[in-house]
Amino acid sequence: MAQDARIPVLFGQPPGPDDTVLLEEGLEPPATGHLLGFTTALPGHMPGCSCCVARSPAATALAAAFRARATGTVPYFTRLLVLASPTGQLDIEAALEEDALCRARFRRAM
C-alpha cells in the first residue's frame, strides 16, 4: 500500500515549538509554534457571492499555508495544526473535502 504524501491536518492539539499553526482570527494565540492566521468571514460579501464562490476563506488559508511552506516563509512543516472555533473547523474540513487543491495537498489526520 502506498504512503499518503499529503500533509496531515490536526485539529485542536497543543502545538510544539516547531509546529505550524493555522489560527482562526479572534482566538488566543498559543505560546509556541509558527502562526498563520485565517478568518471564516468575508467582510462586505454575502455568502456565496459570485466573486467568492470559487474558493472559500478556509481553502484560501490552506493555500497560503502551503505557499508559506514552499517559499520558506515558515519553517518546512510535515503537519499543520488548526486552532479554530467549531465553525472554523467545519470550514477547514469542508475545504479539505471539497476544494481540489486542498484535497491534493492536505488530508485530515486520523
Main β-sheet description:
5 strands, parallel
Summed up, the helix count is 3
Order of strands across the main sheet: 3-2-4-1-5
Query: N- to C-terminal separation?
Result: 17 Å
In brief, what are we looking at here?
This protein is 31% helix and 20% strand. The chain is built from three helices and five strands.
Keywords:
about 110 residues, alpha/beta, five-stranded parallel β-sheet, 3 helices, about 20% strand, globular
Describe the protein's architecture and organization.
There is one protein chain. The protein has 110 residues and is α/β, with parallel strands linked by helices. It contains three helices and five strands; from the N terminus they run βββαβααβ. A five-stranded parallel beta sheet has the order 3-2-4-1-5. The radius of gyration is 14 Å and the shape is globular.
What's the helix and strand layout?
Blueprint lengths: L6 E5 L8 E5 L9 E5 L18 H15 L8 E4 L2 H13 L1 H6 E3 L2
Parallel strand pairs: 1-4, 1-5, 2-3, 2-4
